[in-house]
Amino acid sequence: MYTIFVTDIIDVPPRLLAFMLFLILIFLPLMQLEPSILRLLAFANVWAIFAASWDLVVGRTGQISLGHAIFFGIGAYTSAFLFRFFRLQPWVTIPLAMLVAVLAALILGYPCLRVKGPYLALVSMAFPLILISIFLVSGLKPITGCEEGIGPLRSFFPFLKVYEQRVAEYFLTLVILLVSGIILYKVANSRIGIVFVSILDDDLASKACGINITKYKLLAFAISALFASLAGALFAHIIRLAGPSQLSLNYSFLGVIITILGGIGTIYGPIAAAFILQFLDRYVLTIPDVTILGLKILPLPEAWHMFIFMTIIIIFIIKWPRGIARFVTDKLTDLSEEREIEERGPHIWKKYKRKKESTHEG
Prior knowledge:
Elements: H1 2-10, H2 13-27, H3 35-59, H4 69-86, H5 90-112, H6 117-135, H7 141-144, H8 162-188, H9 191-201, H10 203-208, H11 213-239, H12 249-262, H13 268-285, E1 290-292, E2 295-297, H14 302-319, H15 324-336, H16 346-361
Antiparallel strand pairs: 1-2
C-alpha cells in the first residue's frame, strides 16, 4: 500500500500538489473558523468545480466559451423550479438539473461548433444574455421571479444550527469537489482525453485520421456543462436563491480568470486558484478597520475592489504565465530530478570546484 501511495501520488507532482491541498482543506474546520469564512470556503469549492469544468472544454479541445455561465444558471434555475413547483428535495433536483444542462449543451453546442476562435466566444457569450432577457420579462414573473429571482430555496441541512450548517455545507461541497475533480482528471487523461488534445493541436489532422471531431467536441461540451450546472445548483441552494446574476457574464469571466490563474489544461490548477481568489477577496480587498503603528487604515472603497483585484491577477499572470499550479508542479519536478553539480547554482559549483582543486594539489 505504501509503495502504491509513493508511486502514484508522491512521485507525481500534480497529484502530490492536489493531495497536499486536499489535506489542508480537510483540517481547516478544526481551526474553529467563523461561519462567514466557512461559507466563503464552500463558495471556493463551488467555484473550483465551475472553473475545472470550463478548463476541460477550453484546455483540452480549445473551444473558447465565454458564456459558460449559462450552464451555471441552468443548474441553479432548474433546481429552483423543481423545488418551487414540485417541492422536490435538493438531492433530487440537482441531478435533474445536471441532466437538463447536458441536454441544453447538446442543443446549443451544435450551432456553436459551426464557428471557431473569437466567433465561438461571441456566439457562446450571447446565450446567457438571451436567457437573462427572457427571465426578466415582466409577464413571466410568477415563474422566473424576474429581478428578485426564485427563493428562498431549501438549504441542504435545515435541521442543523447555523454553525453546524456551515461546517456541513463546507464538507458536502468539498466531497463533491473531490469526486468531480477525480472524474474530470480521469476523463482528461483517458483515451477520450487524448482525442480531445489531438483536436486541440490540429482538428484537421484529427479529422483526417477518422476522428469525428463534432462528436468529441459535443462530448466535451456536455461533460463541461454537467459539472458547471452542478456548481450552479450547489451555489443556489447554499445562498437559497436562483437569480439573474447567476447567468451574468461576470460569472463566466470569473471562471476564465480562475482557470488562467491556476493553469489552463491542468484541472487541478483552477481548483487551487479558486481558493487563492477567495483568500484575496477575504483578506486583501475586504479587510476591516485596523490600526498599524498608530495609523488607522480604513477598508478599501467598493469602487477600488475590482481595480486592485484585476491588478493582482495581471501581476500573477505576468509572473507565472502558465499558471500558479504549473509553476509549483514544475518546481516539485525539478526538486525530484537528479541534476549535475553545475546546474545546482554558482555558489555550490564554486565550492565544489575549490574542493576538487585542493584534492588535486594534495
